[in-house]
Amino acid sequence: MKYSIFSLARAAFSGHKNWQRTWRDASPKARYDVVIIGGGGHGLATAWFLASEYGIRNVAVLEKGWIGSGNAGRNTTIIRSNYGLPGNTGFYELSMKLWERMEQDLNYNTMVSQRGVINLYHSDAQRDAYARRGNTMRINGIDAELLDLAAVRKMMPFLNFDNARFPVQGGLLQRRGGTARHDAVVWGYAHAASALGVDIIQNCEVTGFVRDANGKVTGVETSRGKIGAGKVGMAVAGSSSRVAAMAGLRLPIESHVLQAFVSEAIKPLIPNVMTFGAGHFYVSQSDKGGLVFGGDIDGYNSYAQRGNMPVMEDVCEGGMALMPMIGRVRLLRQWGGIMDMSMDGSPIIDKTPVDGLYLNAGWCYGGFKATPGSGLVFAHLLARDEPHQEAARFRLDRFRRGAMIDEKGVGAQPNLH
Amino acid sequence: MAEFSWLPRSPLEHALVVGACGAREVAPGISLTEIRNFDLIQIMARRGKGAELANAAKARFGMAAPEVPKAVSASDVTLIWSGPDQFLVLSKGGKHAMDILSQAFSQSASLSDQSHARALISISGTKARAMLAKLSSLDLHPASFPIGAAAATSIDHTSVNLWRGNDRPDGQAVFNLLVFATFAESLWHTMLDAAAEYGVDIGHSAEV
Amino acid sequence: MRIVCPFCGERELGEFTCLGDAKPVRPAAGASEDEVFDYVYLRDNIAGEMSEHWYHGGGCRAWLKITRNTLTHEICSVEPAAGAGARQAAR
To answer: Any idea what the CATH number is for the domain that residue A322 is in?
Structure first.
């Protein structure tokens, strides 16, 4: 069904009792042209772009649990394209542009809110680094503004400007950045993909790959039976190593837990998304009033969707350094998601050495903002068998070639990215 | 050339203000006393020389150096465990100073003089354990942290050596804490914040 | 998670830092490019019991070898890593 003011009015007259499900809960067919493993934002976006951009509609999305139950539902909903390295800059801007038209494209309210993302700086050296990043963004046609202290003070008068150790000196602002409602993104893609004939199959765990005599992947074994496939795409960040292992692959990835937090609702306070530059802390305020915030990964390998106290303490200390007045705000919820931490902090979107198997992985903790861009470039790869031009550097063999995309510059230490 | 001399100075010289601090309407629940002018030598066994070091320590101090997290005392010295095969020698008056100990342990251990690199803070009073409970994750109940117990741990992200000394004459437990000199002021303020509600009696002493 | 340090006893996680998988061994100087690539970049990324190196930096500063379940965070065993300081704990 198509959502509009008229559909809303019609539904209102019938007491909102006749709303239909927004997407079809399908049962597996024997064979699809493309099978996507993983019903998160990336997998569903890939399916929608395959159907809408590349005309491939005989597509299934297989989800082990329910759609959006993994990292798509476990993030801090931030969207931005303030990256500095070739490879990332263009890709994330492609994604940002897709966010800006997503609601029209999908006919679904994903609550995209371009409220601005500001990275605060606290030293001269950090200002220089942010100025350089801002310049890089502007050269690439991405909006960026370097704000001085007065401008930050005007925008966010509630910050602690008297912190002697970490004085706020200014910030790098991307006005087009902001937030989007994570669940709605999942449902929006499911809604639009389903309407184009994509089968979304839940409670369907992939347990193995079907290979022909030449080793080519020709389908998947699942908890709901064997499903044939022309091509199989993996979009299972967090579990990439486990799924790839079924095809005999080892990946340059470690799985780590990242926590996020929501406070009780308070009056509107934070007008944008802001990050603390002297620690790792990022925060925005949800429409319900809760402060949504996070920080570093816990730092040890984990597949458990929960974290531990030291990082929680560290994140809250970052918040307190910026806004001492939140000290009496109560934490409402905390959760953990499993991150595919790659060896350079950047994603991998590529064919694998196994014929017929395609990989979308290694999103570290930046996967949510990439959702539409990731869907488009992965669909391109699956449809055309060659990388999209904006994802041409996200190759699996870049580690061997020494062509890393390491924004943080820490090398093959996944727990430090 | 002008005369020049080093003046030993406490790392807490600026932060420490002698007298009462915090809640005034109650009898002070916490005593914070900085101990000044001590000798402190870190002794670490060289690879494979752990047993040799143990023998040398016994010969030098007349008692075994602790091999588990404990502090042991003789009349003129305290040996504090600081990690596997290593300990700190705390004393006064130069009897166990660097030049002397380096002779005794030259074959078995590496030594470093920490006398002016650490601050030593003594914490006692009826509320000492309540205050430390805000800062430390260790269980300091007498049942699990009796006299002579020691720990290498962190307080407020700062590495410290913590041990329980002999009780005060009034029966109150005494916790001694060694912290790196440059971290001392920060930790001192943190402890004052934690102690303020109980009322604090601040002083310094030259008695180890 | 709390970790029972063989030297210090049970301590909170905040005193420790994880180095990661203890299994990979640095290849010899003359090793092939494949071996070095494998050592530096590829991971088993085990879902289940994994042997890891941890550092008790907020305590006795000993390196530890810990077997831990990455699915549950349960710690199965803790022992000193090879090297100085292992003498007493090994006893």
So the answer is: 3.30.9.10
Instruction: Look at the alpha carbons of A358, A93, A371, A30 in this order and tell me if their dihedral is positive or negative.
Output: negative
- Is the CB of residue B69 less than 8 Å away from at least one CB of chain C? yes
Range of the domain at A329: 117-176+254-342
Give the mutation candidate from C41, C51, C56, C74 for the A interface (greatest A CB count, under 10 A): C41
User: HEC states along chain C?
Assistant: CEEEECCCEEEEHHHCEEEEECCCCCCCCCCCHHHHHHHHHCECCCCCEEEEEEECCCCCCCEEEEEEECCCCCEEEEEECCCCCHHHHHC
B19-36+116-205, CATH topology level: Gyrase A; domain 2 (3.30.1360)
| Cα–Cα dist B194/B182, whole Å | 20
Interface contact A303-C18, CB threshold 8 A: no
Q: Which of C35, C43, C75 to mutate to test the interface with A (most CBs of A within 10 A)?
A: C43
A317/C contact by beta carbon, under 8 A: no
Please, which residues bridge with residue A339 across strands?
A: A256
CATH number at residue A375: 3.50.50.60
Please check whether residues A162 and A259 belong to one and the same domain.
yes
C9 CB neighbours in chain B (<8 A) are 69
Give the tens place of pLDDT for each residue, A276-324.
Answer: 999 999 999 999 999 999 999 999 999 999 999 999 999 999 999 999 9
B145: nearest CA partner in chain C: C9
Same domain? For A94 and A47 the reply is yes
CB contact under 8 A, C14 and B50: no
Query: Is there a domain that residue A10 lies in?
Result: no
Single-letter code of the amino acid located at A48: W
- Point out the domain boundary residue: A310, A342, A374: A342
Which bin fits A255, alpha (ψ -120 to 50), beta or left (φ > 0)? beta
CA distance A310 to chain C (A): 5
Decide if pLDDT at C86 tops 70: no
Residue B137 at interface with chain C, using a CB cutoff of 8 Å: yes
Which CATH number among 3.40.50.300, 3.30.70.1520, 3.30.559.10, 3.30.70.1790 corresponds to the domain B39-113? 3.30.70.1520
Q: Which residues of C touch A304 (CB under 8 A)?
A: 70-73
* B83 contacts on C by Cβ (under 8 Å): 7, 59-62, 85
Count of CB pairs separated by less than 8 Å, B with C: 54
Q: Give the pLDDT band of residue B8 (cuts 50, 70, 90).
A: confident
Does the C2-24+34-90 domain belong in CATH 3.50.50.60? no
Chains that touch A (3 or more CB pairs under 8 A): C
Inter-chain contact A301–C18, Cβ cutoff 8 Å?
A: yes
Full DSSP string of B26-70: S--SEEEEEE-S-EEEEEEEPTT-HHHHHHHHHHHHSSPPPSSSB
pLDDT band at B201 (very low <50, low <70, confident <90, very high): very high
A274 lies in the same domain as A171: yes
Total number of domains constituting chain A: 2
ipTM: 0.93
Q: For C34, which residue in chain A has the nearest alpha carbon?
A: A400
Q: Looking at the structure, do residues A134 and A214 belong to the same domain, yes or no? A: no
Tokens of A198: 């994509």
